# Entry
Amino acid sequence: MSHALATAGLFALAGAVFLLPLIPAIVELRLKRDAQALNVIQQYAGDIRHFSFGFRSYAAELLTPLQQCVDSGRTATGMLPHGDRFLLLGRPEPALLLPGGSSEKVCDLVVAAGTDLTLPDGMTFMKEMYASRELIGGANCTYRAILGDGNVRLDCASAVTRWVHAAGTFQAEQDCDLYGRISSDREIMLRDGCFFQRLHAPRIVFGRTDTAAEAQGRGPSDHFGGPGATSVAASRRLVDGDLEIGRGEVVTGSIVSRGQLHIGAGARILGSVKSNRRMTLESGVSIAGSVVSASAMQIGFNCRIAGPVIAEQGIAIGSGTRCGTPERPTTVSAPTIEVEDGAVVFGTIWARQEGRVVPRQ
Amino acid sequence: MIYCLFAIVTIISIYTARHYWFTLNRLFGFQRHPYIDTDTADWPQVTILVAAHNEEKVVSHILSALMGVNYPQDKMLVVPVNDRSTDRTREIIDRFCEQHPGRIRPFHRTDGKGGKAAALKDAMELVDTEVILIFDADYIPGTGLIKQLVAPFFDPEVGGVMGRVVPLNVGTNLLTRLLDLERSGGYQVDQQARMNLRLVPQHGGTVAGVRLSALREIGGWNDNSLTEDTDLTYRLLLAGWKTVYQNRSECYEEVPETWQVRVKQIMRWAKGHNQALANYGLHLLFGKHRATFRERIDGFLLLGVYIMAPVTLLGWILALAVFYAGVAPLHGVIALLSITAYSAVGNFAAFFEIAAAARLDYTRQRICLLPFLILGFGVSIFSVSRAFVSQLMAPLTGAQFHWDKTERFRTTP
# Structure
């Protein structure tokens, strides 16, 4: 082999090695198989009712036949265009009877009820459920999703795997597992032992309904200024280490602690608070703005917080505490949230990993 | 010469390690998105500044998008900052004002100092809200973006907020596809990793927000800076304010479609960044201020990213010189180490970052274009080095402050 040929061969080989990784690149450049802008803009903006809206439009064609069933007092079955079978209930059922008198505990139909509906214990509903009136679930039932135009009440130890939206009140008895999104246009009530992730309603009550504190005239609105007055306060005090606010102290403006933050019982903060380490609010603390911790947060009994409550690790909320007000709903969010019986949140509570209702200590 | 080369290799190795650290954090570490779940609140009043200089091709798109967001209408004021436009920008803005009375208050600027920072500085006379959001005119915000960008301001430690920039005109040509990959790496991995690790996420000056009291505390917009966003990031940091990055607050933008425009853009960024390095670098590292130790280190490294281009070029020259000078006794090994350290491994770290970003975005085919990034890298290294040299020469040549506006390419009405 001549030197020239060997040199040419070497260059050709080197060129081939260089070009090899470019082949898929050139193919992609020419074919443009993945040349669209990333589909990352969430136009629905994370609305908690997104799936219930979707189901409502999906099931819209059931409404007319459902009304006919109600008028004639009968039950009907059929199939939706996408292939899902449905069951329409047009008369009050003491307990749901599946078509053909089946006694199986698993229902794989989309169920739509035009009247009040009471479900038997131990059922599993594999598909979505729509109730135009009140829905009362049995104990130990499992639901994929429920859209209720009236009140929805789930009995003990039931589970929801995706979402519930109730136009009326939503109530879950003890030890229910509520995965995904639970929303109500009126009120959500969760009893002890309930697991939750994302809840939204004008008023969310944990444990027993405790109206005593509000009846005393110390309603949450009394502690703070008008709407928007202090939600994003302008002045702040920055402390590089730990900080302790004494019992009953009144602080004007926001506080940022680079260490731990301890706020004594009955203190009032006319601004927002932030700690980069653990935050503790003793009982009766009121905060006119937001409460943020880059770590964990312990909120004592009967505290009043007007703004968002955000912790990067976990939040424990004591009995009698109110977050937000009816006029100024807010968000409580953390990976894990533990709420004692008797606490109330106005707005949204969002536990990315696990939320739990626990008995009063 | 050999010690200089050793120093360069060491610096590049630090940046390489930093790239890998960020990437591995994004792939396997704990992800911080503390404010993104705030969807219900007593939302504060907000002013949205839209910087517009000869933006007739795009300004109507952002104004339409802003009129459709889900932020309470009575708490949001849009202020298009029409900076000495000579095209139809003013006419378009005024038409929107008529169509949406009370929701848009234009700021028409007909003279004064050039540049975005100077325009924003003048427009502050219309701002009386504690929260200010800033967009460039080519951006198209989604429905929920304003709430997402405002939410971090409920944290009293937050002075600035930055969202994620996502190119819209990806498929136009090779350049736009490369810039799409670069943006993915820069935001999806780099910015979010800095957020995760409590380092220094950078304020980008668009899809971004700033707290009015923080801005006033640090002296307002710096109209002498070519990159007011970088300048703002460091002044906030030194004053003890956090800038936070929200990776899930995405907004479409238009990226340059010609290499000429891209070169101008990156040269401006390089000069502005180097300006900030000169102004704040040493003070950030050694000064008495409120930044934490890790913020000092990361902030300094971030300031140095555009210096790395001329440093790498110098390293290449030195490596060749050392090789041919036959510096004993390890010249071959040193040359090998040097070349691989900053021309192969170093670059691969950035490529690794971009590949990880593509994976995190669940895209499949665009990753094939990765080898072409060497083109973008080549153009950038020489453009940024040129910018650096021109900055060094400025005192001799008498070059004045000059702002190059990025040209727009959108043609749809």
User: Anything to note?
Assistant: The longest strand of chain A covers residues 344-358.
